[in-house]
Automatic annotation (TrEMBL):
Gene3D superfamilies: Hect, E3 ligase catalytic domain, Hect, E3 ligase catalytic domains. The active site is at C320. It comes from Adineta ricciae. One of its GO terms (biological process) is ubiquitin-dependent protein catabolic process. Residues 1-352 form the HECT domain. One of its GO terms (molecular function) is ubiquitin protein ligase activity. This is HECT-type E3 ubiquitin transferase. Its EC number is 2.3.2.26.
Length: 352
C-alpha cells in the first residue's frame, strides 16, 4: 500500500492496512464534495443527480459498489448511512407495502409537502397549472425535466393527481438517478450474491454496512480486553484509561479512540467478543515477540518494561492486531493529554 505522499505505508498488513484502505476509499467516495453523493435532510447518502457531470461517473459508481460489497463481505464496519430508497435497490426482493412517496419526506421535504397538499386538495387541481414535469437548479441553470414522455405538455387533473404524485415520487427517488443506481448495484452484487442480500430488510442491510450507530458499549469492551506487558484490569494506568473513556471523552472521542486501535470507529456487528484478534492493551515497551504464559522471566521483564517507559512517548497502535501500545504514564493528566492528542492526530501507522 502507498500513502498519499507516495511512500510505502508503514506496517505489515494483517488486514489492518487493508481495512484502513477500504474505509478511506469509502470515506472519500461518499464525501458530498466529490459530487458523486448527496446528503438528505436526515443525513443519509444517495447518488447525486448531477454526478453525471463527472467524467467516467458510471465506472466510479460501479467501482464504489464493489468496494462496499467487499467491505460487507469482509465484515468491515463503515461510518456511512445510506438513504433507504437507495439501499432498497440492492435488495431484489420487493416490498409490496412500500411507497416511494414516504421517502420524499427525507429527500425533499418541500416537494413532499406540496404533493401532500395536492393529494388532499378539494378544488380543481387543474387550476394549479401543474404539468408532468419538474424544474431543477443544475449548477445555477434552471432545467425542466419530464417525468413522463412529453410531460411538460400534459396537465394534471383531479382524475390523475394520484398518478402524478406517484410518478413524481418515482422520478425523485429513482428515475433521476437510475443509471447511477444500476452501476452501483451491479458492482455491489459482483461481491455479494443477490440471494445473500435478499435475506435482509433495508434496516438490517444498513446495520450490516455500518453496524450500530449508538455510543460504544464500554462494559462490553472491558469484558473482552486482553492485557499484556504487565498491565491488568486493576493497574492504575488501566483504571485511568477507563475513567477517561467514561468521564472525559465525548462520544466522538470514544469513536476516534476505537478507530485509532481497530481502524473502525464503530463496534463489531456481534460485539467486541467477535473482534479478531481481540482488543489488546500492551505496555508500550513490551517485546513484540515475548513468550506466552506467566513465567518468572516474563513477569520480571514486564516489570522492567513498565518502569522504563517514558512519559514523553505517545500511545501508538497496530490496527492489524487491534493492539493499543500504551506507556505507563505517571499521572492521569498525562495519559489524558497524550491519548487525546494521539487519537486526533489521524496519523495511522506512522504515529509513534
Amino acid at each position: 500500500f502507498i500513502n498519499p505522499q507516495g511512500l510505502a505505508e508503514a506496517g505489515i498488513d494483517q488486514n489492518g492496512i487493508f481495512k484502513e484502505f477500504i474505509q478511506e476509499v469509502i470515506r472519500q467516495a461518499f464525501d458530498p464534495s466529490f459530487n458523486l453523493f448527496r446528503v438528505t435532510e436526515n443525513r443519509t447518502l444517495y447518488p447525486s443527480p448531477i454526478s453525471d457531470r463527472t467524467e467516467n461517473y458510471l465506472y466510479l459508481f460501479n467501482f464504489i459498489g464493489k468496494i462496499l460489497g467487499k467491505a460487507v463481505y469482509e465484515q468491515i464496519v463503515l461510518d456511512i448511512e445510506l438513504a433507504p430508497f437507495f439501499l432498497r435497490h440492492l435488495i431484489s426482493r420487493k416490498n409490496l407495502n412500500y411507497s416511494c412517496f414516504d421517502d420524499l419526506m427525507f429527500l425533499d421535504r418541500d416537494l413532499y409537502n406540496n404533493l401532500n397538499f395536492i393529494k388532499h386538495y378539494d378544488d380543481d387541481v387543474s387550476s394549479l397549472a401543474l404539468t408532468y414535469s419538474i424544474d431543477e437548479d443544475v449548477l445555477g441553470e434552471l432545467v425542466t425535466y419530464d417525468i413522463i414522455p412529453c410531460g411538460r405538455h400534459i396537465n394534471v387533473t383531479n382524475d390523475d393527481k394520484i398518478v402524478y404524485i406517484h410518478r413524481m415520487s418515482i422520478y425523485r427517488t429513482y428515475t433521476r438517478i437510475k443509471n447511477q443506481i444500476k452501476a452501483f448495484t451491479e458492482g455491489f452484487k459482483t461481491l455479494m450474491k443477490p440471494e445473500w442480500i435478499n435475506m435482509f430488510s433495508v434496516p438490517e442491510l444498513q446495520q450490516l454496512i455500518s453496524g450500530e450507530s449508538s455510543d460504544i458499549d464500554l462494559e462490553d469492551l472491558k469484558s473482552n480486553i486482553v492485557y499484556q506487558g504487565g498491565y491488568h484490569r486493576t493497574h492504575p494506568v488501566i483504571k485511568w484509561l477507563w475513567q477517561i473513556l467514561e468521564q472525559d471523552f465525548s462520544r466522538e472521542e470514544r469513536a476516534l479512540f476505537l478507530r485509532f486501535v481497530t481502524s473502525s470507529s464503530r463496534a463489531p456487528l456481534l460485539g467486541f467478543r467477535s473482534l479478531n484478534p481481540p482488543f489488546t492493551i500492551r505496555c508500550l515497551e513490551s517485546s513484540e515477540h515475548e513468550e506466552e504464559g506467566d513465567t518468572l522471566g516474563r513477569i520480571f521483564r514486564n516489570m522492567i518494561s513498565i518502569n522504563r517507559t517514558s512519559s514523553e512517548r505517545l500511545p501508538s497502535s497496530s490496527t492489524c492486531f487491534n493492539l493499543l501500545k500504551l506507556p505507563s504514564y505517571k499521572t492521569r493528566r498525562i495519559l489524558l493529554d497524550k491519548l487525546r492528542y494521539a487519537i486526533q492526530a489521524n496519523a495511522g501507522f506512522e504515529l509513534s
